[in-house]
Amino acid sequence: MKILALDTTSGSCSVALNDGGRLTEQFVAAERDHTRRLLPMVDRVLAEAGLKLAQLDALAVSRGPGSFTGLRIAISSVQGLAFAAGLPVIPVSSLAALAAGARRKHPEWHAGTIVAALDARMQQVYWGAYSPAAPAESIVPEAVEDPAEATASLSAAGIEGALYGAGPGWHYPELAAAPVAAIDLDCPIHARDLAELALPLAQAGKAVSAEQLEPVYLRNEVTWKKRQKIRPQ
Question: Where is the Gcp-like domain (predicted)?
Fold first, then answer.
């Protein structure tokens, strides 16, 4: 199966092709210019593989959480490509991709649960926990919380085995107090990990049409729930 994955969730921009397990990636650590960089990177990855867009089986993209602007850039780009080539899209959690990249970087973490955390600004973090048995789905619901709340939630989850922290969200001292064996702040999201996670999701029937593709912001969902609670009945 040939899957092309795109990511602009955070401070990097990457495109990768998973061609039957053979991975090709273009990766740039860049806070800006994602819109200008992304489609030329798609062209380079496809050219390197000797493929046309229409020869792919599916596209994959970070569905979030992450930067609002970054998510919109990747998702709108994938929607345009999907419409043009009539391809399905596989939404992949950006936190799951972050955790997968950390597991790839740290082979010694292979048997543990990786707690991925992105800085959500406003003194909050996006976080989720990913086991080697189900790397694309968080053990607990992905959440946006204050660092101290995230630490309490993680402790209350009662996850068995070793825990490891990955991602820039771990810079908050309150989160760093969580019961993890090690922390790596420098774990950018790579499209190659999206492309690998996308394959079992596609096989499980998780692909959607371009029209159905929507970002997962988490913060919007939390804000809506709070409004629901305080709205007079």
Answer: 30-151
- The mean of the pLDDT values for the chain is 92
My answer on whether 149 and 207 are in the same domain is no
77: three-class secondary structure by DSSP: helix
Q: How many angstroms separate the Cα of 168 from the Cα of each of 96, 136, 182?
A: 14, 19, 14
CA distance linking residue 193 with residue 103, whole number of Å? 10
Residue in the structure block whose two tokens are 């969730």:
9
- Specify the higher pLDDT residue, 222 or 28: 28
Residues 150, 176, single domain; the answer is yes
- CB–CB of 7/59 below 8 Å? no
Number of structural domains in the chain: 2
Q: pTM of the full predicted structure?
A: 0.92
In tens, the pLDDT along 72-85 reads 999 999 999 999 99
Q: How far apart are CA 9 and CA 14, in angstroms?
A: 10
Q: What is the pLDDT of residues 166-195, one digit of tens each?
A: 999 999 999 999 999 999 999 999 999 999
21 domain-assigned: yes
H-helix or E-strand spanning residue 195: helix 191-203
Residue 16, strand partner residues: 5, 25
- Residues 40, 69, single domain; the answer is yes
Which CATH number do you get for residue 176? 3.30.420.40
How far is residue 117's CA from residue 94's CA, in Å, rounded to a whole number?
Answer: 10
Residues 6+ apart with CB under 8 A from 13: 7, 27, 28, 30, 33, 34, 37, 38, 41
Taking alpha carbons only, the member of 214, 9, 201, 187 closest to residue 101 is: 187
